[in-house]
Amino acid sequence: MIxxxxxxxxxxxxxTIYYQLSLLKLNPSGKQVMFx
Length: 36
Description:
Keywords: Membrane, Transmembrane, Transmembrane helix
Structural class: mainly alpha
Mean pLDDT: 78
Shape: rod-shaped
Distance between the termini: 29 Å
Helix content: 55-70%
Number of helices: 1
């Protein structure tokens, strides 16, 4: 049970970080990307 929840949180965090990085790659000198 705890393992499944941990995996979901980890995957969500990974997707969020990957999404932020892809936004940075698309707009390197453009708009500010919200990290918080």
